[in-house]
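Assess this:
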Amino acid sequence: MASKAPHPGTILRDAMSRGVVVCPGAFNALVGRAVAHAGFEACYISGGATANVAGYPDVGIITLTEMRRTIREIVDASGLPVVVDADTGYGEVESVARTVVEYDDAGAAAMHLEDQVFPKRCGHLAGKTLVETSAMVEKIEAACANRLDEDFVIIARTDARSVVDLDEAIARANAYRAAGADMIFPEGLESEEEFAHVASASPGLLLANMTEFGKTPHITAPRFGELGYDLVIYPLTMMRLAMGHVTRGLAELKTTGTAAGLLDEMQTRSDLYELLDYDPGVPWGFRHARRS
C-alpha cells in the first residue's frame, strides 16, 4: 500500500528550513506550470492578480469560489506547494473558518489573512483602514482551529506600518503570533533596516513581499534571507511582464497589421508543447496535466 503523500504545507516548511524560498506569482495554471518548470520550490496566488485577470481591481471582491478553482488548477498544473492570498477572509470569523477548510481541501500549502477593513486596498496604496487587533486575533484563532492539517501554514499579514507606524506593526505581529499564526507578513516596509527590525522584534517565520512599483525597494531574495525572512513572494511580476508584452504586441498588430515582427518575443509552439508535456503523436490523458 502506497504511503500517503506529505501535506503541501509540510513540503513548504521543509523547504524554508533549508533557506529562503522564492515564490513567484502564478496568475493561471499555465504560469504555475512554468514556475515549476523553471525550478522554483513554491508558487504564489495573489488575490489582486486573480481579480485583475478577471477584469477588476484589487479591492477584495474576488470570491472564495473563484479562488478555490484557481488554487486547484495551479496546484494540479505545478505540483508545487502553493501559498495563497485570502484577503480579509471573505467575511468575519465564520467565513475565515470556511476559507481555511476550502483552501486546504483545494491543495494549498498556506494562506495569508490581512488586518484591513473591507473593502481592502492594495498594501502599497494609501487610504487603508485597520480592524482592531482583537478582531484579527479572532480570525487567526478560527483559521488555526479549522485547518484540516496542522502543517497547513497560517500567515498573518499586517498593514499597520503604513497606517500607523512600525511599532504598531511589530505589536500586531507579536499578538498574531501569540494567537497561533505560523508566519508574519509585514506589508509595506520601506527599507532593509525596517525588515531587519521586524525580524529582530518578532522572531519566527517571516514573509517578505517583493512587489514592483510599491513602497519596498528592490531587495534580492538572498538578502531577504540574510535579514531573517523565510519566504519571498513576487505577486504580480509575471502578470506585469505578460501584460507589458501583450500591450506592446497589440500596438504592433494595430499599427502594422501583422504579428510577423513579434515572433522572436513569442513562446514557440514546440516550447509550449514541451511545457504541457504534449506530443501530438501520442494520445493525451489528464495525467499529463499534473506534474509528477
Notes: The chain has twelve helices and eight strands. The first strand starts at residue 21 and ends at 24.
